[in-house]
Amino acid sequence: MARFFRNREAGKGFAPGSLIFIGNKKIEKIRIRVIDFTTDELKETEPQDLPGIGKYKEPASVSWINIDGLHDTQKIEEIGKIFDLHPLLLEDMVNTTQRPKVEEYDNCLFIVMKMLRYDEEKEMILSEQISIVLGKNYLLTFQERVGDVFEPVRERIRKQKGRIRKNGCDYLAYAILDTLVDNYMYLITHIGDRIEELEDNILKASSEETLEKISKYKREISYIRKTIRPTRELITSLPKLESEFLKNSIVPFLKDLLDLITQVSEAVETYREILADQLNIYNSNVSNKMNDVMKVLTIFAAIFIPLTFLAGIYGTNFEYLPELHFRYSYYIFLGIMLLIAGGMVRFFRKKGWL
After folding, report:
1. Which of 111, 54, 141, 154 shows the shortest CA–CA distance to 245?
2. pLDDT at 195 over 60
3. What is the pLDDT of residues 198-215, one digit of tens each?
4. How far apart (Å, rounded) are the C-alpha atoms in residues 100 and 210?
5. Do residues 90 and 80 touch, judged by C-beta distance below 8 A?
6. Strand 42-45 vs strand 124-134: parallel, antiparallel, or unpaired?
7. Residue 270 burial by CB count (10 A; 0-12/13-18/19+): exposed, middle or buried?
8. C-alpha–C-alpha distance, residues 311 and 304, integer Å
9. Residues 275 and 301 in one domain
10. Tell me, what CATH number does 294's domain have?
11. 3 in a domain, yes or no?
12. Domain end call among 261, 284, 307
């Protein structure tokens, strides 16, 4: 399964604004959840019919409408008609290969983000596209599947924690973005701990398993980096938009969010450099081990060179050789060879070569 670049063959040749779902179907049926609240009241519902969500378009309260599932383009188009969403916005929404970005339309602000999660079984990071449509009194969030990191935000709304019930949709949008970025930091920390543990193993022993882990973590860090870099650009641009959908009171929070995504980006680059250093250390260890083996083999070869020379001379078939017929020639010859070998070993040790 391609993670870095997905196949976009399904959308080839269609006119701009055409709703063509590009991605993997992750749930069978679209699910809609609504949280409608004011400072004093809270209502949570799961509308079964799409026309029923039209009443949340311009209420006096704040309405958070979450849609799980993007594969049913007919229903997405119907939602777009209810909230008067631009066709290009809807096209980007159902195209799960979108790069994180922010676009302003006449009646809303459109934000595309990526939700990352670590699959312990597969030991890899998976992503899900999150589309956020910020209106004046409503917030639409579109996800690919049921299950997300937004439950803490819902709990804050239910328990009236912090200022979330006292502010508008722009603050709710900030809270969702903040939760996504916090999750990025959690993932980086989770993988970073494993990367740092791996460094100790590299110093102790360099095995093929260690190389596989380095390669795996390099791939996962690159995947996170692919998401973090455009996300940082997105969050950097938000305080500068001067949009009617973002009040001045929200700007300090967005700047704080920029500090957080900057930390995440720096952590990604740090661990990327650490993995590069670990790979260099691994290659150095392998090279050093190979050099040690070659050094020992070279020393043995060097010892046997003079011994082979002597054996070659006295192994010839000439009849008249010095000491050839001496009674103890064989033992004297072996003794000389042992002395030469021992002398060379002592010399190599004195030089620190052995």
Report:
1. 111
2. yes
3. 877 777 766 778 888 888
4. 33
5. yes
6. unpaired
7. middle
8. 10
9. no
10. 1.20.58
11. no
12. 284
C-beta neighbour count of 68 within 10 angstroms: 19
Where a domain ends, among 255, 284, 313? 284
Range of the domain at 159: 12-284
Nearest Cα neighbor of 263 from 199, 193, 186 is 186
Task: Tell whether 323 and 266 lie within a shared domain.
Answer: no
Amino acid at 89: L
Report if residue 2 sits inside a domain: no
**With contact defined as beta carbons under 8 Å apart, do 202 and 210 qualify?**
yes
DSSP label of 111: E
In the chain, alpha helices (H): 73-82, 87-94, 151-158, 169-204, 208-237, 251-314, 329-351
Q: Is residue 298 part of a domain?
A: yes
Phi and psi at 169, nearest 5°, equal: -65, -30
**One domain for residues 270 and 341:** no
For CA atoms 255, 260, 266, 268, give the dihedral sign.
negative
- In this structure, what token pair is assigned to residue 149? 């990191």
| The model's pTM | 0.80
In this structure, is residue 21 part of a structural domain? yes
Query: How far are the Cα atoms of 89, 91, 99, 105, 349 from residue 18, in angstroms, in the given order?
Result: 10, 6, 18, 18, 78
Same domain, 234 and 303: no
Residue at 326: amino acid letter: F
Q: Pick the residue with more confidence: 63 or 28?
A: 63
Q: How many domains does the chain have?
A: 2
